[in-house]
Amino acid sequence: MVPRTCPRGSTWCINNYTYPVIINVMRKKSKAKLKPQVLNFPDGFLWGATTASYQVEGGIENNDWTQAAREGKVPPAGIACDSYNLYEKDFYFAKSLGHNTHRLSIEWARIEPEEGRFDDKEIEHYRKVLMSLTAHGLEPFVTLWHFTLPDWFAQRGGFLAPHAKTYFVRYCGYVVERLGELANYWITINEPMFYASNGYSKGQWPPFEKNIFDFINIANVLTMSHNLVYEKIKSLRPSLQVGIAKNNICFESNKKTLNRLASKFMNYFWNLRFLNKISRHQDFIGLNYYFYKKFGSKPRLPKSDMGWDIYPKGIYNVLLQLKKYHKPIYITENGLADAKDDKREKFIKDHLRWIYQAIQEGIDVRGYLYWSLLDNFEWAHGYGPKFGLIEVNPKTMGRKVRPSARKYAKICRENLIKF
Ligand code: IFM
After folding, report:
1. What is the reported pTM?
2. How far apart are the CA of 388 and the centre of ligand 1, in A?
């Protein structure tokens, strides 16, 4: 055998015989590591992304967030991504990125700008939007309420006001009666616990309260509101699939008793209590997963631009807990702020790997919708955080697909991930 020569100047080269041996060992090792793994998702799996009206539409001036912006308490959303006008373009992008579903929300303040006055022009607008989704081959998921309240409703005290549930049910019924035939999947409320916590306990969102009793009250009112809307929709159109978009957190603890108790309590209070109360009023569960909270010392984890820990296994833990509800599950949001786009591809793949694992263990996950299709208005943080698969130029409203979106597109098209 003719011995191979060492690379010149190599410090680890012992002699010409050990070099090939070392290289072979390294090759074997790296082969073992890189053994390709193909994870096939179930047939008919839904792939897409999510947006919400106030965060992308622009031009909304009559809700509690615009009022708070006028008072200087939160940043203004202004024209946002102008998706009110550019929705066709957005859906075209989504389709060209391999998506087969899309979740968006309807702005209550547009539909009912004054108490009891419904605007059929806006119904017609959303009719066109939903028809356009279908025309683009995107299965619509429609959220009826995603955080923002019409001024008139907020001024009366929002969901804590005496007739709040009745108003909410009336609005939802009005929309579903007119647009129900255009979508199979309807989400009543987005992230009720976050709404309750940010608005009523932390005081960071309208109505900027810090009152633990109101926080609990609001959470309870929202469960009842969901149940009533569920019944209303079922009475109007029994075949529609109705659910919630529930943001669940992965709570863990070290072995200390107090920490274990804290984690158990929070898991019940934040994740399960709401779902238990609506368990007979849901056809599917929409899971939004972003957060990991460990009681006791936490491992060092990579972080998103928001400083949020990236913990993909958490989605698996949270999914396993949903098994007891025996309902199909759609991941209605999961994503990160990543302006440089250097973490997004791995983020998506790692979460999908754990979702795949949950499916193998019998969890009925039927879709994954990334948050968000576009960079958009991130509530109290304004336009700083970049969650989008697609960048939006705030001046020209031009859209630019990020490289990670193309990687995600491949997964969507092939219905599988390769590692
Ligand atoms: O932007 C929000 C969205 O409105 C609800 N879920 C979490 C997203 C990221 O914070």
Report:
1. 0.92
2. 12
